[in-house]
Amino acid sequence: MAAWSSSCLTPASRRRILPGFGLSLACTLAYLSLLILLPLSGLAFRASDLGPVELWAIATGERALASYRVTFGASLLAATINAFFGLIVAWILVRYSFPGKRAIDALVDLPFALPTAVAGITLATLYADNGWIGRHLEPLGVKVAFTPFGIVVALTFIGLPFVVRTLQPVIEDIESEVEEAAASLGASRWQTFIRVLFPAIFPALLTGFTLAFSRSVGEYGSVIFIAGNMPLISEITPLLIISKLEQYDVVGATALAMVMLIISFVMLLAVNALQWWAANRHSGCSPSLGAHQ
Amino acid sequence: MSIEIRGIGKRFGNFVALEDISLHIPTGELVALLGPSGCGKTTLLRIIAGMETADVGQVLFAGEEAAHVHARDRKVGFVFQHYALFRHMSVFENVAFGLRVKARKVRPAEAEIRSRVTALLKLVQLDWLADRYPSQLSGGQRQRIALARALAVEPRVLLLDEPFGALDTRVRKELRRWLRRLHDEMQISSVFVTHDQEEALEVADRVVVMNQGRIEQIGSPDEVYSSPATPFVYQFLGNVNVFHSRVHGAWAEVAAERPEGGPESAVTAFVRPHDIEIEHHPLTGGLEATVQEVHAIGPWVRVELAHASELIEVELTRERATILALAEGQLVWLKPRQLRVFAAPGKTMEEGGSGI
């Protein structure tokens, strides 16, 4: 409804009833500029010290390219895994009541609360060749720690709460009557899920996916402990930036940061556009009819 | 298709929602389940639909036990109070839903689906809204779409749960008449739940009055209104004055009705406000009362009178009120034209005065 009304405002209804719009807008803009725009433009400014040819050379170096692949690939994979399992977790937490439900609900927040370094060390210990889990995976020929696979594990760990917490309120909102209506019309459980429930959940799932993905792209602390950080294989871009900074190669670090910024921005924009489309395709503007309730 | 309900009982924890309900609904009948909220009428409807299971008893569709038939296989059309339309589907797709989810072998071809949905939308007079989404419709339009959606699968039984409960009075009246016509055209059995006695009396062939999980009375709208079987039905269907005590028992005799158990026992007498006559002069067996307030409400004039500590409500036609020219504080005599006496101090909804 919110989207509907905002997109259907006629000039006459633009008169504001709430006071303080000017002041709060100014506050918001100033705050956002200071916090987000200023550092970002500083970054762009710094990067412009380099000539385009130099910039391109650094940004497309072999090590850099490999690190993009690892970072964005692992993030995408982790976010996808989380979208799938997060949906199941959220669904169970909302729809069923069982002993220990509250404990599990609280557990979901753990990756939020845990310092990322702690998570990284814990995961690395668990999945190392002699760790509790790694020990059993080793004979199967599966190596997790110190491989790109380990990065995916770490990113999945930290991304889960984003999906679950985004989905929960949306699933709670689905009326059971809608499911009953589908059943009375002859739909099976599966058909009800695919045709009725999933379309209702999808925009939120996309939001959760985006949040988990963005978080993963920027993740540093938990990844470096489990990744092994081998150049060209399991080195993430944030780590590459850090190592460049440690060598006082500020310009090189800035160039990589610029690339990260641009890719992230484009991806977020794309997902946001998708979200907007998913949320708005079912409500148009028809002021004459309006919503009755 | 006929529906037979035998000895249905249902509890939610300690709360008895339904107790020993038996009811037969022949093919083609439109039945109203009428009762106050919490009387179990919606639970009964949901049991018929297969959305709830009864603790005891049977539901038979056309003579066949339906207990193990899942809601989706019952061929029952269900209409919800709050429409329960699929928000992300257009009106057309909402109506087509029941056809699209059919197994491939029995699913109609796309062209067939199109023509059937269009026909249904025409039936509910909303074919011009096919491409809209539910959020763009008014409440009345949404409910008609919900009905079209339920009818798309050609149900054998149509169940409606307070279908007009969320609509305003004018739309509600219009849809009522429309539902009646539709029911007659489709020739199916319909059951609808309502707490609105006017709605039940106007639309239904038969009214089932329910209270506290039990059936109080089953009968035609005229029967339940003019000869209520229990004090509850009397009070639930329309306004009523309730009198207790022997004195009023004597009053009852005036109207030539003898309470069972003799004049000495305590009785409760029920008189509808429009069944009381007001006179300026004393009447034999008449009740003395003082006029307290006079309101003109639409075609009626409602007079509130005080008899001792009891409040009596009388409805007069405008003509009669003009002739009487009642004024506040005036002393008048009342005489019932028609009243009903229940012997025991019946379970009444409230003590004395007027019901509802």
Automatic annotation (TrEMBL), chain A:
GO terms for molecular function: ABC-type sulfate transporter activity. One of its GO terms (cellular component) is plasma membrane. It comes from Candidatus Accumulibacter vicinus. InterPro entries: CysT_permease (IPR011865), MetI-like (IPR000515), MetI-like_sf (IPR035906), Sulph_transpt2 (IPR005667). It is found in: Cell membrane. Part of the ABC transporter complex (TC 3.A.1.6.1) involved in sulfate/thiosulfate import. Part of the ABC transporter complex CysAWTP (TC 3.A.1.6.1) involved in sulfate/thiosulfate import. Probably responsible for the translocation of the substrate across the membrane. SUPFAM superfamilies: MetI-like (SSF161098). NCBIfam families: 3a0106s02, permease_CysT. Its main location: membrane. The keyword Transmembrane helix applies. The chain crosses the membrane at residues 70-94, 140-164, 193-214, 220-242, 254-278. The gene is cysT_3. Keywords: Membrane, Sulfate transport, Transmembrane, Transmembrane helix, Transport. Belongs to the binding-protein-dependent transport system permease family. CysTW subfamily. Residues 68-271 form the ABC transmembrane type-1 domain. This is Sulfate transport system permease protein CysT. It comes from the Bacteria. Pfam families: BPD_transp_1.
TrEMBL record, chain B:
Gene3D superfamilies: P-loop containing nucleotide triphosphate hydrolases. PROSITE patterns: ABC_TRANSPORTER_1, ABC_TRANSPORTER_2. The keyword Cell membrane applies. The keyword Iron does not apply. CDD domains: ABC_CysA_sulfate_importer. It is an enzyme of class 3 (hydrolase). Its EC number is 3.6.3.25. GO terms for cellular component: ATP-binding cassette (ABC) transporter complex. Pfam families: ABC_tran, CysA_C_terminal, TOBE_3. GO terms for molecular function: ABC-type sulfate transporter activity; ATP binding; ATP hydrolysis activity. InterPro entries: AAA+_ATPase, ABC_SmlMolc_Importer, ABC_transporter-like_ATP-bd, ABC_transporter-like_CS, CysA_C, Mo/tungstate-bd_C_term_dom, P-loop_NTPase, Sulph_transpt1. Keywords: ATP-binding, Cell membrane, Hydrolase, Membrane, Nucleotide-binding, Sulfate transport, Translocase, Transport. SMART domains: AAA. Residues 3-237 form the ABC transporter domain. NCBIfam families: 3a0106s01. This is Sulfate/thiosulfate import ATP-binding protein CysA. It comes from Candidatus Accumulibacter vicinus. The gene is cysA_5.
